């Protein structure tokens, strides 16, 4: 598998100053631009193909920056996991809402679900600007890059939106010192959907061959092509559409995505992934050796074991029962299971798989509830269940399908970015989450930096 070996982030540039000695004058300073790394101003004016490729590679790297924080923080909120990190008691006290803790500005260790996605968005904006202002590629090639950049950008907006929820997020951040207003949750979803459609239009106008290369995160399942990126774009739109409760929009997007109503583990795992590697690349941030003697580990929340159906192969595949349970000073219960999904510390991490698309399909059909929609939704749910060794269920109406879909999503999408918390909230079921030893939050607070900026402008 090809891995990202070198990351040249065009958002970072170095200004080197040297003293030029002329006679006795030691105060004149001339700027020397690093010839090996393009400045922001440099790439925004007629960037070369190589510079564009560097920015695309950098965007793929930035794209994965949210993974650890979203999995741990949102996963803790939804009680998919516990973050048993003895390095700081706030991983349990604050994250689980113990001791009367409620969300506060600059919530402990939450930058990865707010600042980090906006860094990726900034990288995408830089790539978009550079692409629009270069003569080194054709217009059709520009469309390919723009479609890719906007697709990733749209995906990244969802991450802070999940945390901020009804606080809303800024969407227009092209000018960091003059950002646009905060948009409500619904308005932000509308803008994200529009951006995905804009990216889709770009990809439809793109060159037949991509003028850039992508990692195996796209290539392993054949999404490193224009047609493949279109399918990924539509898959992200399907996910976003169910958040917006646009059921027809979700189904329409799925028709042009990579969804396959096919049973089997290989079918379920088809999708797009974040790739990792050995230095100078980054390791898989969720990997932990089995039975490691550590007090710094993400563990499986016990409710995931308690609520599981007998014979569910998802439980066997994802949860490893440790020889010695893990304890934490702030949780009066040992954790017996840890994450078993990763073979090595360079294993890829999925961010959108066919299994999720099938469950989106079932949910959207049930909510639309026309003609054979309930029967088709039931068949889709049972396709998932049968794949993982569970018997078929009979579902007769929208409510029964939704109940079952939410249950299947807990196990199919466990620790893939906080789906349990997001799903419970959008169906007003946060009170159904097992909140043992704490409180389940609805959303985070707006960061102080944003509040201060608003108050001073």
Short description:
The protein is α+β, with helices and mostly antiparallel strands. It is built from 18 helices and ten strands.
Could you walk me through the main structural features you see in this protein, from its secondary elements to its overall organization?
It contains 18 helices and ten strands. It has 457 residues and is α+β, with helices and mostly antiparallel strands. The chain has one domain (40-341, 415-455): Serine Threonine Protein Phosphatase 5, Tetratricopeptide repeat. Strands 1-2 form a two-stranded antiparallel ribbon. A two-stranded antiparallel sheet has the order 3-7. Strands 4-5 form a two-stranded antiparallel sheet. Helix 2 (49-63) packs parallel to helix 6 and helix 6 runs antiparallel to helix 7 (185-204). Residues 1-30 have low confidence and may be disordered.
Number of strands: 10
Total number of helical segments?
Answer: 18
- Ends apart, CA distance between termini: 49 Å
Walk across the major sheet and give the strand order.
1-2
Query: What share of the residues lie within helices?
Result: 40-55%
- Mean pLDDT reading: 92
**Strand content of the residues, in percent?**
5-15%
The secondary structure category is alpha+beta
Report the uncertain regions.
1-30
Which architecture would the CATH scheme give at its second level?
Answer: Alpha Horseshoe
CATH topology: Serine Threonine Protein Phosphatase 5, Tetratricopeptide repeat
> What number of structural domains do the residues give?
1
Largest sheet: 2 strands, antiparallel
Radius of gyration: 23 Å
Question: What is the 3D shape?
Answer: globular
Q: What is the quaternary state of this protein?
A: single chain
| Broad CATH class | Mainly Alpha
Helices and strands, in N-to-C order?
A: EEHHHEHHHEEHHHHHEEHHEEEHHHHH
């Amino acid at each position: 598998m090809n891995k990202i070996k070198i990351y040249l982030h065009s958002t970072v540039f170095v200004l080197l100053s040297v003293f030029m000695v002329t006679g006795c004058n030691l105060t004149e300073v001339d700027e020397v631009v690093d010839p090996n790394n393009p400045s922001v101003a440099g790439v925004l004016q007629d960037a070369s193909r190589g510079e564009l490729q560097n920015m695309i590679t950098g965007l793929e790297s930035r794209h994965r920056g949210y993974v650890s924080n979203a999995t741990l923080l949102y996963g803790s909120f939804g009680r998919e996991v516990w973050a048993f990190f003895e390095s700081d008691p706030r991983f349990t006290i604050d994250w689980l809402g113990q001791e009367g803790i409620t969300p506060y500005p600059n919530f402990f260790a939450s930058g990865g679900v707010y600042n980090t996605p906006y860094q990726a968005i900034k990288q995408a904006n830089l790539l978009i600007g550079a692409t629009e202002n270069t003569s080194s590629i054709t217009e059709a090639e520009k469309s390919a890059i723009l479609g890719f950049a906007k697709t990733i950008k749209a995906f990244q907006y969802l991450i802070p939106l999940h945390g901020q929820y009804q606080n809303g997020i800024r969407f227009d951040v092209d000018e960091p010192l003059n950002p646009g207003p905060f948009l409500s949750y619904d308005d932000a979803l509308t803008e994200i959907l529009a951006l995905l459609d804009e990216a889709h239009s770009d990809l439809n106008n793109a060159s037949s061959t991509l003028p850039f290369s992508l990692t195996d995160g796209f290539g392993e399942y054949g999404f490193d092509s224009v047609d493949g990126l279109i399918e990924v774009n539509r898959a992200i739109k399907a996910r976003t559409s169910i958040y917006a409760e646009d059921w027809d929009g979700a189904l329409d997007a799925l028709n042009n995505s990579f969804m396959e109503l096919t049973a089997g583990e290989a079918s379920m795992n088809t999708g797009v992934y974040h790739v990792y590697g050995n230095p100078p690349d980054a390791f898989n941030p969720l990997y932990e050796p089995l039975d490691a003697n550590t007090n710094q580990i993400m563990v499986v929340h016990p409710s995931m074991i308690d609520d599981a159906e007998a014979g569910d192969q998802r439980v066997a595949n994802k949860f490893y029962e440790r020889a010695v349970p893990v304890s934490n000073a702030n949780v009066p219960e040992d954790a017996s299971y840890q994450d078993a999904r990763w073979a090595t510390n360079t294993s890829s991490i999925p961010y959108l798989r066919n299994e999720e698309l099938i469950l989106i399909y079932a949910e959207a059909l049930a909510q639309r509830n026309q003609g054979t929609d309930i029967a088709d939704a039931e068949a889709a749910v049972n396709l998932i269940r049968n794949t993982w060794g569970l018997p078929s269920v009979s579902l007769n109406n929208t409510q029964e399908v939704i109940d079952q879909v939410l249950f299947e999503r807990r196990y199919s999408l466990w620790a893939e970015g906080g789906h349990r918390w997001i799903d419970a909230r959008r169906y007003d079921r946060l009170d159904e989450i097992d909140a043992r030893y704490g409180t389940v939050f609805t959303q985070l607070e707006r960061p102080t930096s944003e509040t201060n900026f608003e108050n001073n402008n």
